[in-house]
Amino acid sequence: MADALLTIEGLTKAYPGVVANSDVSFTIGQGEIHALLGENGAGKSTLVKMIYGLVKPDKGTMTLNGTPYAPAEPRVARSLGVAMVFQHFSLFEALTVAENIALGMENPPKPRDLARQIREVSETYGLPLDPDRVVGTLSAGERQRVEIIRCLLQNPRLLIMDEPTSVLTPQEVDILFETLKKLRSEGTSILYISHKLEEIRALCDTATILRLGKKVATCTPADTTARELAEMMVGASFAMPEAKDQPLGDVLLQVSGLSMPSPGAFGTPLRDITFEVRAGEVLGLGGVAGNGQDELLMALSGERTTKAQCIWLKDKPVGNLGPAARRAMGILSGPEERLGHAAAPNMSLTENAVLTAAHREGLVSNGFINWGRSRDFAQKVISQFDVRTPGTETAARALSGGNLQKFVVGREILQRPEVLIINQPTWGVDAAAAAAIRQALLDLAAQGAAIVVISQDLDELMEISNRFGALNEGRLSAIRPVEGLTIEKIGLMMGGAHDMEVAHV
Amino acid sequence: MIRLEKRPQPSRFWTGATPILAVLLTMLVGGAMFAALGTDPLEAIKVIFWDPLFHEQFASYSRPQLLVKAGPLILIAIGLSIGFRAGIWNIGAEGQYIMGAICGAGAGLALYPSDSALLFPMMVVAGALGGWVWAMIPAVLKVKFGTNEILVSLMLVYVAENILASVSSGLLRNPEGMGFPGSRNLNQWDAASNLDLIPNTGMHWGVVAALIAVIFAYVLLSRHIQGFNVRLTGEAPRAARFAGVSPSRIILFCLGMSGVLAGMAGMFEVTGPAGKISIDFNSGYGFTAIIVAFLGRLHPVGILLAGLLMALTYIGGELAQLMLGLPGAAIQLFQGMLLFFLLATDVFTNYRVRIGKGELA
Amino acid sequence: MDLSSINPVLLIASIMVSATPILLAAIGEAVVEKAGVLNLGVEGMMIVGAVVGFAVAVNTGSPGLGFVAAALASAILSLSFGFLTQYLLSNQVATGLGLTLVGLGLSALIGKPYEGMKSPTLPKLDIPVLSDLPVVGRMLFSHDPMVYLSLLLVVVVWTFLKYTRAGLVLRAVGESHDAAHALGYKVVRVRMIAIFFGGACAGLGGAYLSLVRVPQWTEGMTAGAGWIALAIVVFASWRPWRVLIGAYLFGGVTVLQLNLQAAEVAVPVALLSMSPYLITIIVLVIISARGAHGAPASLGRSFHASS
Fold it and tell me: Which residue ranges does UniProt annotate as crossing the membrane (chain B) (predicted)?
């Protein structure tokens, strides 16, 4: 490429036990929107952190505008014209837009000048934003604009955007795309990280695809079909899901018209969620992070209650019951956040076993805890789920993420639930353990339980689910059997195109 | 460069060692303070920590005092520790203690001069209720409106002190007291007095109640699901909610328990060692109990030991006043330092101290 | 009952005097809390300020020196709290309580020889021209310098927080210490400076009690003023101007109830003298029922760079 802005050659970065990036090379041209495409864990974040100076590569070189580029810290990267908009914003909620922007600048101008500059930039790029608004009152999309404007005020030559649309409404996505196209026309290059295929095909000039830390290809997305992109992203291993032919029983869990306000400023409200799960069935719920997964789990576990008629266990309405009552009836759950939500960090594994198993396992009688039985139960979880730990009296926070996950999942499965709702069951777990957890979930279903798996790992959902739905901004798509689902259809469901194929149903 | 590294789990060794280290540091710095005040530090330490128990002349008087002082401290600290475990900060135990005394004594005096055997138990219940009601005010306000329990419980101490002043010169004033403020002396009224169960041991009903409270709290926290829920709420509030624990019920339970125990402590004090309701009835036990609770690592057995130690410094302080002319306030400072050093050394429990250049985090 | 014995001019003037110690302590604590630190030791720092200020004023004959010494003494004391909470990561609630207990003990110890003494008090600073105005002159413009200093402090803190870069950084640290750290700001240093400032203000407030308001040293003389200052910060939603309003309202209640006591109104004395505390509780309830507005998001949380 004649007018290269940033050339990356042979970048490699290894962490203990994982090679995050291996020999990655590609080139970003001047005034180009370059997509970096890959699944969760493909090594996109690490690569970007190296470009932004947050992480030092083990091997490889970068060249920016013809000169060697090896930023020691983000400050250096910024001074050389590389700016980044983070996926999780580091904003101060109680401060105004202008104050937030000033805090992120090395030498901010006077407040009045800054406010004027913010207005100018926001008008120029079609990003309406009032510098005097308090950030806490802004929507996720508006917060993102704060970060973008903070970057633009420093006149970057390369703007890095990490999953920018995962928090945006479709309308906001359109606005963002207009902005990015305008920036491109002015000669700014953009490195656009995403796993949304349609977006990349619509926006990007070039795409580099990563899988398992390695570059798979660099291509022109406009000339490539979504299916081809998907296959490059997930590799040849993406097997078309097959129908699972085990007999399904009665409906065990039924959710109808479940709506709930957002639990906090950063939360997502649930909107009119309706589905049912039968005995022996695994329902997989996909979706980009932050689209209501956590909220749905809290609504189903009973941490947040609602009208009784919104949630049914067989013929009993349970929507108004708390977690303990639902557990007693057979609805068990496993939240995504292990430390602090699913388990108490400073308490022992025995105590963490009591946390959810107190009544179902008979660990408590007349209000008194039987520590002997509790220890036995904890030991049973440890041995059956291969939890690596010195013993039952170890504090939960001393376990590695994967081991604690095995413990938390095992704790629920061993309680023989009728309905199990689980969020991110294999997040951060090594491949062998992940396979074991999935098998345990399938075995549980085979024994007649109804299972809801919420996950961002599509391979996982396709492997174990009978039917699939996707969460988008707190709404649930139509639920479809996994057989015959293609990656394009899944992408559309995740993107919120709810009625994409009404004719087919 | 010195830096701290979080331990994977709290160190057992340091959990037990920090109170001892804190006591030693307090002796060291306190000794320096005594020296600055012109007192031989070793002598002062001996008078405070050794003489109350073993001095030929004074020990026979001061040994029983140990239980008299430790009783209310332990009783109150046990209640406070349950709340502190759950992250609920009742620091108005002094007010609950006063209200317990007023209600307990008031209920008894209303029936003067009954000699029913039920009178004393009824007074205990009234005292407990008085403390409970006083603690329910911050509890209910916190549950209903999210009002900060620290400030409300503390403000109520001053309100209680004003009520105390008012009743001791009004409602509960001794009609035969020739107009002097202060209630009848309950020690001179057998049915309502709480004297030593075994003469000259200091062992009154309050001490018995304190021991029962220690056992009760031990069982509650280590064996009972409610105690487990209390600890869980303090350790990980979100996990507690996931487990099905209602935060409101924990608030009401914890503040209620500490109110009941502080109220009972006040009642046992007014019927026993103090003898009557008077304007200077309260002596800061409610605040010192906070130190006791922390020094005992919020553990019932630890609190038992810490209560005895703190009682020792009270008596030793009085002795030092008598024998060495050390100001009484020096002991108060001594006790405050103890809490400070405990909090300072606690860092070793949860962190490992590393010396040398590390990666900047 | 004789309400006519209450002179409105003196009433307003004495409200200002009565509000000043709490205003001083509260404005300092507001800055500390804005930086994300909850220092419950205000009462202890105030009383140390009261005794040190008194002792220095008596010994040097200069109340001005007394104030300076009080501010320094309390600020140094507050650094012990800062060291424990910021470097040793101790629990802020417990450490603040500890600070109060230490302060009460320390002050009683220092103050023993000074009980019953009289100190030189601050001369009135009649503001030229204005103090000659009828009524308003004596009411508002004929006070000691500390009254004006406390008002000036409110203006300075407000300006600092609202208009300066350093003030912005301080607020950022209180909002999210992690984000502030990520942007390269020195969280612990900012907080230590804020704690020091809060200590100095509490010391001035305490000295004002013992040198002007009372003016005498008695053990435990702050009688909860530090705690009320804490409550006023909550009432004010952490805004300097509202701290001023809160302190003056509280001063008003205190003076009014004292006047009513003196006028022998047919309300029990106990009820009158507990009214400031009851009103504080009521105000706290009203504020919390409306929802906690403006509490710094990192308030009371320990900051450890690696976690």
Answer: 12-37, 70-88, 95-112, 118-141, 150-172, 203-221, 250-268, 288-315, 322-344
Which B residues in the span 81-110 are in contact with C, Cβ-Cβ below 8 Å?
89, 91
A interface with B, Cβ–Cβ below 8 Å: 301-303, 322-325, 327, 335, 337, 340-347, 351, 354-356, 358, 364, 367-369, 371, 394-395, 397-398
The helix-helix angle for C269-289 and B119-145 (nearest 10°) equals 40
Domain count, chain A: 2
pLDDT at A503: 33
Pairing of strands A467-472, A282-286: parallel
User: For residue A240, is pLDDT > 60?
Assistant: no
**pLDDT tens digit string along A246-258?**
678 899 999 999 9
3-state secondary structure A175-186: HHHHHHHHHHHC
**How are beta strands A364-365 and A368-369 bridged, if at all?**
antiparallel
Q: Do B225 and A302 touch (CB under 8 A)?
A: no
Q: Which of A57-61, A204-208, B238-242, C262-266 has the lowest mean pLDDT?
A: C262-266
Of A215, A234, A253, at which residue does a domain stop? A234
Q: Rg (Cα) of chain B, in Å, rounded?
A: 22
Element (H, E) at A368: strand A368-369
pLDDT of the residue at B230: 96
Residues of B in contact with C307 (CB under 8 A): 6
Nearest residue in A to C181, CA atom: A90
The pLDDT confidence band at residue B137, using thresholds 50, 70 and 90, is very high
The CATH number of C3-290, from 1.10.10, 1.10.760, 2.120.10, 1.10.3470, is 1.10.3470
CB contact under 8 A, A102 and C168: yes
- Among A320, A347, A350, A389, which would you mutate to test the B interface (most chain B Cβ atoms within 10 Å of its Cβ)? A347
**How confident is the model over A369-392, as pLDDT tens digits?**
999 999 999 999 999 988 888 889
Q: Which of C98, C234, C270 sits opposite B148 (nearest CB)?
A: C234
Does the pLDDT at position A118 exceed 70?
A: yes
CB-based contact C175 A90, cutoff 8 Å? no
pLDDT above 90 as % of chain A? 40
Q: What is the ipTM of this complex?
A: 0.86
The whole domain housing A248 covers 238-324+454-505
- What are the φ and ψ backbone dihedral angles of A158, each rounded to 5 degrees? -130, 125
Peptide bond into A128 cis (omega under 30): no
Inter-residue contact A258 to A299 (CB < 8 Å): yes
Q: How far is B236 from chain A (nearest CA, A)?
A: 5
Eight-state DSSP code of residue C211: I
Q: Is C179 in a helix, a strand, or coil?
A: helix
Say what the pLDDT of residue A242 is: 53
Same domain, A245 and A110: no
pLDDT band for position A238 (cuts 50, 70, 90): very low
- Answer whether C281 touches A (CB < 8 Å): no
Per residue in A21-55, pLDDT (tens digit) is: 889 999 999 999 999 988 766 788 889 889 988 88
The amino acid present at A230, given as its one-letter code, is: A
pLDDT at B358: 42
Query: Long-range CB contacts (< 8 A, 24+ apart) of B328-332?
Result: B328/C108, B329/C105, B329/C106, B329/C107, B329/C108, B329/C109, B329/C111, B329/C112, B329/C219, B330/B30, B330/B33, B330/B34, B330/B37, B330/C105, B330/C109, B331/B48, B331/C105, B332/C101, B332/C104, B332/C105, B332/C108, B332/C109
**Nearest C-alpha of chain A: how many angstroms from B224?**
4
pTM above 0.80, yes or no: yes
Domains in chain B, please, with CATH? Answer: 40-325 (1.10.3470)
Q: What share of chain B in percent tops pLDDT 70? A: 98
In which band, very low, low, confident or very high, does the pLDDT at B214 lie, cut at 50, 70 and 90?
A: very high
